[in-house]
Amino acid sequence: MSSSTRLTFAGMIAGFSLLAKTYPEDGERLGRRKITGIDASATPVETGSRVLRTAKATVETIGLGAGEIEDDGVILDEKDHAGTYGIPDKQTIEAIRHGARMHIQSGIQSLKSRWNDKCGEKRRNSRFG
Predict the structure, then answer these.
(1) Do residues 84 and 78 touch, judged by C-beta distance below 8 A?
(2) Which InterPro entries match (predicted)?
(3) Do 80 and 19 belong to one domain?
């Protein structure tokens, strides 16, 4: 998940900590679960620090101690940003183009499907059918 805004990522870290406490029989397995954030900010140290602060504040809000989140509990994958926030690199532009092509193809398939459904409905309701 993208971590540039931090809130969802921090909430997932806090949520898994709560699960580990709520279900102690599965606590060890759940507590070891690692969630990797994808750094899109190009500032992984600052983003990781913000995620950690937010996760610790969240666990306190839901009734756990901030100590439930270890300082190394935030894992950020840094290989998917272009070195700066908001300026796409060649790989990002190609991913955008690929997504657009897939969306267009998906839209065409959806329209064809609806057309076929309508034609089938007309045939079924036709006196010639």
Answers:
(1) no
(2) TrpB-like_PALP_sf
(3) yes
Rg (CA), the chain: 23
* DSSP3 helix / strand / coil % (the chain, rounded to 5): 65, 5, 30
Specify whether 93 is located in the same domain as 78. Answer: no
- Token digits of residue 28: 């060890």
Last residue of a domain, one of 86, 101, 116: 86
Q: Which amino acid is at 102?
A: M
- Could you read off the pLDDT of 25-34 as tens digits, one per residue? 776 665 566 7
**Is the pLDDT score of 6 beyond 70?**
yes
Binned at pLDDT 50, 70 and 90, residue 102 comes out as confident
> What is the structure's pLDDT at 50?
92
In 3D space, the residue among 24, 95, 11 whose CA is nearest the CA of residue 54 turns out to be 11
Could you tell me if 82 and 92 lie in one domain? no
Run of H or E residues at 53: helix 44-61
Instruction: Name every residue whose Cβ is closer than 8 Å to that of residue 93 and which is 6 or more positions away in sequence.
Output: none
